[in-house]
Amino acid sequence: MKLKEIERTAVQAWSPANHHPIYLATGTSAQQLDASFSTNATLEIFEVDFRDPSLDMKQKGTLPASNRFHKLIWGNFGNGSPESSGVIIGGGDNGVLTMYSVHHILVSKSEPVIGQTEKHSGPVRALDFNPFQSNLLASGANDSEIFIWDLNNFSVPMTPGAKSQPHEDISVVSWNRQVQHILSSAHPSGKAVVWDLRKNEPIIKVSDHSNRMHCSGMAWHPEVATQLVLSSEDDRLPVIQIWDLRFATSPLSQLEGHTRGVLSVSWCQADPELLLSSAKDNRILCWNPSMGEVVYELPIRSQWCFDVQWCPRNPSVFSAATFDGWINVYSVMGGNLEAQQKTQADKISSSFNNLDPFGTGQILPPLQVPEQVAQTTLIPPLKKPPKWIRRPVGVSFAFGGKLISFGLTKAPGQQMQQTYPHQVFISQVTTETEFLLRSRELQMALQSGNLLDYCQGKIQTAKLPFDENLWNFLKVNLEQESRTKLLKLLGYSKEDLQKKITSCLSNGIPDKQPLPEADETNAAQPDQLLINSSDDVAAVSSSSAFFDNLIPQNMSTLEIPVTEDTDGLISQALLLGNFEAAVELCMRAERFADAIILAIAGGENLLKETQKRYFAKHKTKLSLLLSSVVQQNWQDIVCTCDLQSWKEALAILLTYSKHEDYTHLCDMLGARLESEGDAALSNDACLCYISSGNVERLVECWVKNHETSSPLALHSLQMNQGL
Questions:
Q1: Could you write out the DSSP letters of every residue in 391-439?
Q2: Measured between alpha carbons, how far is 635 from 639 in angstroms, rounded to an integer?
Q3: H or E element in which residue 625 lies
Q4: CA distance 453 to 690
Q5: How far apart, in whole angstroms, are the C-alpha atoms of residue 721 and residue 700?
Q6: d(CA 207, CA 606)
Q7: What is the pLDDT of residues 2-51, one digit of tens each?
Q8: What is the C-alpha to C-alpha distance for residues 266 and 276, in angstroms, rounded to an integer?
Q9: DSSP character string of 524-554
């Protein structure tokens, strides 16, 4: 939509982005004449006030000029003082380069021309300020002349290097937007040269191989340092080429939408996805260079537009200078020009209070505006929101203490921006500081892999014996030779047992310790010890459907003695896998049958040694243990052991069971402790599930026996699962 207009045959320059209010400078264009054939030249400054609905712009300053202008540019040089508004540089005929003080033009008091030089040998058509150092100006003219000027010393320029060959005009010069010592220049022949001012030489040259590329415009990518665009004014190749200097053998991509030669291009510094172009087909297009599509188009005009420029301060606005002597200011956000014209007509009528201005006192009739047969003036906006109005971030609370946030991420600087990827973050908001601290400690331990120290710290800070025991089991599961260490946690050590056996063999072994008295209903039978009645077994099995499938009915209960008599020492030796000591104890006690059975399990050599002794079957309370060990029937131990001896049963599994059976057997033992035992034994079932690695059963057992409403208790369970 058109916002402002001014009738001038002129070149143009916007005020810098940090300047307010927004000004537009115009200079009488060289090599163009209006209907009056006047050869005078004028430099003018207009205020672009978008609050005023009219199309007119207010003139704020004017200055007669000695030369007409090929190029005009407005820079920040001298903006350090409060009164300064920067400088305007004009490139004219005969190599004239003139520097004007904007402040002096606006106040019309002192001499506005603060510098002038004629170092160039021909018309100065190319100008650009360094975006990093406002005192550095690049200019280009005929015969491949490029000068770098320091505005603090405007009389002596420097060159970026030797003139490119063959000599030709410089149509455009442009500073890189990311690297301050890189400058590029373009020639009408289609060749572009990139200069490195540190080396004072060209570092690369790019050109189209078709030889039909007549370069009319050039612009660096606002964010990607190695990419630039070149436009061709040749009607045979009306394209805009995107080049990446890392692959300078051919264009990276090509924008094809104009039907005749492209006259100018301008890249929006606020959004790299907006590139303006004007051409001889009377069209002004706005491109998304990364997608190669047109996102905005102005209606076709009757004259060519030879210059388009984005407004540095208001990125939705651009200006266009045409050969019919008009400079128009447009918005890419769309609008309706008819509504604007009606508003202007109503404003004029209201100034006369609807009365005849000639003093007759008659009310003016309504203004009849003839209908336009021409095309509609409704101009759609950009196809998608530009970068400067996109919502950069957002945040919202969700259920469960979740905080959802999003933001726009910047694409890598070395690649063309395809899209702006959205990142959504989900955060947990909590007021439990101790809970948060423990979560961080666990997270750090998991990331560093230092779980042993973490478990040791939990052991040292445990307040309850069960918690200390739990963390000891977890710690041992993470260490080497975990089974041996788990045996020690259960209270069984090979070294301690050896000391007991040595002491007992030297001092004499008590035959047996007295057994607890039993009533007739629970008295042990010759081949069964501590056998539960069938009614008891049925009552226990009916409490758990899971346990019904694991334990057969009428199974005898196995008690594992760990006393200091012969049976106790033999049991401890077997728990630790010390067959030699167990056989020796049996032989000393003249228990030949036990000795032979153990020798069979202990190996061929041990069996041969004990076969010399008489082996007689002798049924005692140890018979079931011996039978299980010799026959390697571990399921019977799990299913029949006294629950108070669960540690011993777990020790047997740790010692003898195969790896593929160990998990299942530990789960069986844990299931018995859960279904048959009291609350303390049900807690101990957690240790069996930890030993087997069954996380699901551990969680079920934990939840059943612990308070789950506390966030700290839940966190402890979560840490156990993580470990």
A1: --EEEEEEGGGEEEEEEEPPPPTTS------EEEEEEE----HHHHHHH
A2: 6
A3: helix 623-631
A4: 19
A5: 12
A6: 92
A7: 899 999 889 999 999 988 899 999 999 887 776 667 778 999 999 999 88
A8: 5
A9: PBTTBSSPPPHHHHHHHHTT-HHHHTTS-TT
